[in-house]
Amino acid sequence: MTKRQKLFRPVCLLAVLALAISAFTFQPQHITVWLAGDSTMADKQVKEFPETGWGMPFKAFFDSTVTVRNIARNGRSTKSFLKEGSWKIITDGMKAGDYVLIQFGHNDEVPTKKNATTPTEFHDNLLRFITEARAKQAIPVLITPVARRNFDKDGKVEGTHEAYSTIIRKLAVEAKCPLIDLDSESKGLLQQFGVENSKFLYNYIEAGDNPNYPQGRHDNTHFSEMGARRMAQIVLNDIKKLNLDLKDRIVKGSFPDNVPAQVR
Fold it and tell me: Which of 14, 18, 119, 237 is deepest in the core (most CB within 10 A)?
């Protein structure tokens, strides 16, 4: 072995070692994405299918460094989510670097429901979620409530969440919290699909078509599998637009960006 070869060999070994250390050092930390919300986000039992919460397909779009825990539950408001201890499940399990996606409003805004909240209560409960998540060094993301399928006589989508979505938008600015305006974006999606085709996004079933709903079901709030996937894709696209670090953990090519609604 020449003198030059003797010198070259340890240099190569050092280079290989440096690459190995670098690969180990930059291995992404495993994180959990927590979902806090109501029935439009929640996992469903088999007896409820084909009703699908958008949190169900959402889980499938991330790489192996992410675990999605869906704590959303049917019928929950910010008040009942706190009272029953569902939020505590999240704060007890949350760690630095985790994300928590927070979508409420459907049940908070209906004054006849026992778990309804006043606008002030709604604001304060959401602010509590943000504050307690940040205390655990997690990243909260506010989401406005997803639109109901509600068209006027001229075929224009009518909003049903204006007051409570406005509270969320203002709080996002106040608390400097990332915001996904799912209310506005899902209304846009519904408008693209139109009055009749938008039924395919929701749990809209005719009598005799599904054994879980023998009498049929015309549900303009909860989603079909396709509708849930489309709502999840809106959220995922906005994670990218917001340039959250979480975007780098979305599986590449898992869905197309900026494709017209009718062909996705």
Answer: 237
